[in-house]
Specification:
3 domains; alpha+beta; 332 residues; seven-stranded mixed sheet
Length: 332
């Protein structure tokens, strides 16, 4: 059987501030024999765009792709297209001028005289606005790599000078990761240390603690821990990861499965400040928080544009900077 070729999305459509893919490309990438097969199953995902035809949101395509191991293996990565609109950024800047003038008229009068302008309007149009436009452009250019932190977290995870995964495995532990992808293409890495009765969320900020893991003469797995949040006065403590009270090998299940099990079987507490996180559980061997987006996804998988994928996700990220026209600052 001939190897199926990766589908390259050469056409992407920016419509109503969202990125769409042509249905024909998306259906082919997802291994549907024809477009109609996709339409029959996912008619609610189809958007007809004038001059283009049937299209699918890039986020919807990604949601379907990560659920299909064969398609994901063939494509090799999800699609992330970030569109920074210079025009919209400058429109925000110009909309603030009436307020800036109202509270800073003296300053603008001074700057107008200093630059030899006949009026504040002339000064703003000739000097202040162009400077603000350049600031907006610079801001966009500096943020082209929107998922730099995600890449850095992955690099740190496999950097033995920071975290020796082999050392953890010798102690009967392992690492599980899950990737979170929001509707605007932002990616985050969710990491856990897992073992028999052990399920601990961690990040690169904790690597220095896990690098000091050891086994004492009694075979106990010990790791130093400093509780910065709740009890910093206690200083550094040694946590015994062999002293577990939960009969579950968390290595045998995905992060999502482990969280669902914990919510159902442990005394999970609600958080008072639930702007981002809803539930949490704290013990020496099990420690996690469940965010709103993740909880919604666990309850109803199609209710959120945010995608959660087991493991590390390869991705291509395209950045387009749109041009802008002359802005109307003062009404005529």
């Amino acid at each position: 059987m001939a190897n199926k070729q990766t589908v390259k999305f050469t056409t992407k459509i920016f419509h109503d501030n969202k990125v769409y893919l042509r249905l024909s490309d998306a259906a082919k990438a997802l291994n549907y024999p024809q477009k109609q097969s996709f339409i029959d199953l996912h008619s609610d995902m189809i958007t007809r765009i004038k001059g283009i035809g049937d299209c699918v949101l890039e986020t919807d395509y990604n949601s379907l792709l990560v659920k299909d191991d064969n398609a994901l293996s063939k494509q090799g990565h999800i699609e992330i297209t970030k569109v920074d609109t210079l025009r919209s950024k400058i429109e925000i800047v110009t909309s603030m001028y009436p307020l800036k003038i109202a509270f800073g008229k003296g300053f603008f009068d001074l700057m107008a005289r200093k630059h030899g302008c006949m009026s504040v309007e002339e000064y703003i149009l000739k000097y202040d606005l162009p400077e603000e436009e350049q600031k907006c452009l610079k801001e966009i250019q500096e943020h082209r790599e929107s998922n730099t932190y995600y890449k850095e977290e992955i690099e740190a995870l496999f950097d033995k000078s920071k975290l020796d995964i082999d050392k953890l495995r010798q102690c009967g532990l392992d690492i599980e990761v899950m990737t979170q992808i929001t509707s605007n293409g932002h990616m985050g890495l969710i990491s856990y240390i897992v073992g028999e009765g052990v399920f601990l969320e961690f990040s690169s900020y904790d690597y220095h603690e896990w690098d000091k893991i050891s086994v004492d003469e009694n075979g106990n797995i010990l790791v130093p821990y400093f509780n910065y949040d709740d009890h910093p006065e206690d200083g550094e403590q040694l946590i015994n990861l062999s002293n577990v009270s939960i009969d579950r090998d968390f290595r045998s299940h995905s992060i999502m499965e482990n969280l669902a099990w914990c919510i159902e079987n442990l005394k999970v507490e609600p958080l008072e400040d639930y702007e981002y996180d809803v539930f949490h559980y704290r013990s020496h061997t099990v420690d996690f928080e469940v965010g709103i987006e993740l909880l919604v996804k666990m309850i109803k998988s199609d209710s959120s544009d945010t995608v959660f994928v087991d493991g590390i996700v390869e991705f291509e990220e395209d950045v387009y900077i749109t041009d802008f026209d002359s802005q109307k600052v003062f009404g005529r």
